[in-house]
Write a structure and sequence with these properties.
Layout lengths: L2 H6 L5 H14 L5 E6 L9 E7 L7 E6 L7 H15 L8 E7 L3 H6 L26 H10 L11 H4 L1 E4 L2 E4 L2 E2 H9 L18 H13 L5 E14 L2 E5 L8 H7 L9 E3 L14 H8 L5 E10 L5 H20 L4 H15 L4 H21 L5
Parallel strand pairs: 3-4, 3-8, 8-11, 9-10
Antiparallel strand pairs: 1-2, 2-4, 5-6, 6-7, 9-11
Helix pairs in contact: 2-3, 3-13, 5-7, 11-12
Bound molecules: zinc ion (ZN).
Length: about 375
């Protein structure tokens, strides 16, 4: 049985995770290229994103890219999934025509400090582009929502300011005159104006995004098919795998998708969730979006987000998730009325992205194992 060993794959902390990733990369057989991207920090910590690339042995047909920790503290689960894939699946894969590129803990500051964003307050999943235009995008709606609903003062309540403005009209939730859906979609998109606003995408690529872009530019050419699995937690039904795509054109090649993913047949393993579903939202500068930017004509892309739910996806869960998100955001910027409240908010926040429940942990690993096995088999790299 995998059960006990599976729980051991969840790391104690960032350093523990990095050490295991490096060990697994070193132990893997065959040709490989390891790299280490230093992420400068004012904290004096030695932050690195570690990568290992297993090139195809004969010809370049399919490239799989597997990323953990785009959102810092989601790397607890992302690391465990990568460690399972590297230790169990990789030795069984036929690497003749396929390459495998593992990027570990893309936001080490956030992993260590239990934040989603980087030290500069940037959400890396709004920071990805090969072109400068992204960082000039204006999302005035998001700035208005942040100015209106995030008080520039210490957190002093169990309920964030937004939820204290809540009212119901029939089944529909409003905060003053702004509907829940408008709030989620307006702020979720990302903005490039203010660190204090929600889902800040930065003014330029963060150091690790610049490095990742450079690495992908080197690796991608020559492959026919490119598949991204970007590992996340925190959105959707509890312990359920939601397969999401990027929103920009070219993120998902329909033929490649049809070959690798069979949402009907795979219903026991995942839900395929289009970006416009209620409670989910479109984004600018997502990791998925950079793949079509870097691909050359004729390359087929499937840039997928693997998102495991934690709290759940009922209305109450979504509201609680909002509460935890906004309290942590406000607290990280303006502090807390007392230390106990700060500790409580931070503990809730960690639980939201990395539940303690061993059942949740076992289930996401079992699901990832089954999911990757099916995809690798359909890609012809696993018999
Ligand atoms: Zn995430």
């Amino acid at each position: 049985m995998h059960d006990m060993a599976d729980l051991d794959l969840f790391p104690k902390n960032y350093e523990d995770a990095r050490a295991r990733f490096l060990k697994l990369a070193a132990q893997a057989e065959g040709p490989k290229v390891s790299d280490r991207w230093v992420v400068p920090s004012a904290t004096g910590d030695n932050f690195t994103v570690d990568t290992v690339y297993f090139p195809p042995l004969n010809k370049s047909k399919t490239l799989f890219v597997i990323i953990s920790g785009v959102h810092g503290l989601e790397a607890y689960a992302g690391h465990a999934i990568q460690a399972m894939a590297m230790s169990e699946l990789l030795p069984k894969l036929n690497r003749a025509d396929a390459g495998f590129f593992f990027i570990h803990s893309l936001n080490p500051y956030g992993f260590k400090n239990h934040t989603r964003g980087t030290e500069a307050g940037v959400n890396l999943n709004r920071n990805c582009s090969a072109f400068p235009d992204l960082y000039r995008t204006k999302n005035e709606e998001s700035i208005r929502l942040s100015d209106r609903f995030i008080p520039k003062e210490p957190v002093d309540s169990e309920r964030c300011f937004l939820l204290r403005q809540m009212r119901k009209e029939g089944e529909k939730i409003f905060f003053d005159d702004v509907s829940l859906d408008e709030f989620i979609k307006g702020s979720g998109l990302g903005q490039f104006t203010s660190r204090e606003g929600l889902e800040f995408g930065g003014f330029q690529p963060e150091p690790q995004i610049a490095k990742m872009t450079e690495a992908l530019k080197n690796i991608l050419p020559g492959f026919e098919d490119i598949v991204l699995f970007d590992l996340h937690t925190g959105l959707g039904e509890r312990a359920r795998l939601h397969l999401l795509t990027g929103d920009v054109e070219g993120c998902v090649d329909p033929q490649l998708f049809a070959q690798l993913f069979k949402p009907e047949e795979d219903r026991s393993v995942y839900d395929f969730t289009p970006a416009e579903s209620e409670g989910f939202y479109q984004t600018l500068g997502a990791t998925n979006n950079i793949f079509p930017e870097l691909a050359t004509a004729g390359q087929r892309i499937c840039a997928m987000t693997m998102e495991f739910g934690t709290l759940g996806h009922t209305l109450d869960h979504q509201l609680e998730s909002l509460n935890q998100w906004l309290r942590e955001h406000q607290g990280s910027l303006y502090g807390y009325a007392n230390p106990d409240l700060g500790n409580e908010v931070r503990a809730d926040y960690l639980e939201k992205f990395f539940p303690k429940d061993p059942e949740w942990r076992r289930q996401i690993l079992a699901t990832s194992r089954e999911f990757l096995t099916r995809v690798f088999r359909r890609a012809g790299v696993l018999r």
